[in-house]
Amino acid sequence: MILIADGGSTKADWIALDSNKKELFRVRTHGLNPAVFPEEALRDRLVNNFQLMKHKKEVKEVFFYGAGCGTPKPTQLLKHVFESVFTNAKVVVKEDMLAAVYAASGGKKSIVCILGTGSNSCYYDGETLKQNVISLGYILMDEASGNYFGKKLIKDYYYKRMPQEIAEKFENTFDLDPDEIKRNLYQEESPNAYLGNFAQFMFEFKEHSYVHQILEEGFSNFFTNRILPYNQPKETPIYFIGSIAFYFEKILKEVAEKYSLEITGILQRPINNLIAYHQNQV
Length: 282
Known about the structure:
Nucleotidyltransferase, domain 5, alpha/beta, 10 strands, globular, 5-stranded mixed sheet
């Protein structure tokens, strides 16, 4: 059995293939970002999944593409966790950007971007993945991500910059008690995912000028910092993956046009295309 997974801070999608690369089952676990969660939490999120544990001895290969796996230490930590659970398997852990490249462009020359709970981008020349900057995560970077917009909404609410009709719905949707917010940000294990939950609120008001401006500013920030510095020809395909890109496609494409760029494709989740890529490998 082969396990292939694409994971972020919020969730990880798994698909099992048999020796003929035919799909056996699909399952979803909580996020497995080794840059955010400690070893014990990562292991618990695996062993508490019945489907994966039921077949753990049958697994011969694990291919995991995940957020937080772009530098050696967290990558080795997660690899160690997988090897301790899937004891009969060869384990490969790669960053989520590589999964995005395989899923979006099939491994062809392109600029590929992630806009989900977090954000990132890369240029793939057909052989090598290149990034203009290493991401430093949700506190310092993650432009136009779910957690980026979540922070913006919370701050605007508290600074009373949010329009009244939106503010009323916002406070009826979320627990905005300051102690509750600070507890989730400074005491719980996944503040980036917590912040990302607030971004879903924008979809209901995406045509409102306030939300449209927030999205436009965030996407412009992303293009300026994460796409333009690659200095690639205008005809280079540009792909986006992730829930923020998917649900706010119209505004994202409007911003791209301001930079005389065209978005080639947008995927909500890469897992189906990622599986197709692996199935086509010899």
